[in-house]
Design a protein that fits this description.
The chain is mostly helical. It has one domain. Helices cover 70% and strands 0% of the residues. The protein has 4 helices and no strands. Helix 2 runs antiparallel to helix 3 and helix 3 crosses helix 4. The longest helix has 25 residues. Pfam families: ELFV_dehydrog (PF00208). One of its GO terms (molecular function) is glutamate dehydrogenase (NADP+) activity. It comes from Punica granatum (Pomegranate). This is Glutamate/phenylalanine/leucine/valine/L-tryptophan dehydrogenase C-terminal domain-containing protein. One of its GO terms (cellular component) is cytosol.
Length: 104
């Protein structure tokens, strides 16, 4: 859940890793897509397969956020690294899509 600036500061002082809301929210979007594919009979899998696919997607989001953060100078252990890394990763993904489509 998103936190107030004051709550984030308390978490940072306690050296608690802060997960970016946009990346956490992506789990709901991914779950919705998996459910839709299942319901439309595009794909058929067990609850265990569903969980495995969701876990893998979330791991990829985490790995992209950490990589973007470290590529842009944030320490992996830094409490704000995931937040900044998720924003950077999302921006780079969007910029690449726009470039691929000839928009820029």
């Amino acid at each position: 859940m998103p936190c107030t600036a004051e709550a984030v500061e308390v978490l940072r002082k306690a050296n608690v890793l802060v997960a970016p809301a946009m990346a956490a929210g992506a789990g709901g979007v991914i779950a919705g897509e998996l459910e839709l594919n299942h319901e439309c009979n595009l794909m058929n899998w067990s609850p265990e397969d569903f969980e495995s696919k969701l876990q893998e997607a979330m791991k990829q989001i985490y790995q992209r956020a950490v990589k973007a953060a470290t590529d842009f100078g944030y320490q992996k252990e830094s409490p704000e690294a995931l937040v900044h890394g998720a924003v950077i990763s999302a921006f780079l993904t969007l910029a690449q899509a726009m470039t691929d489509q000839g928009c820029v």
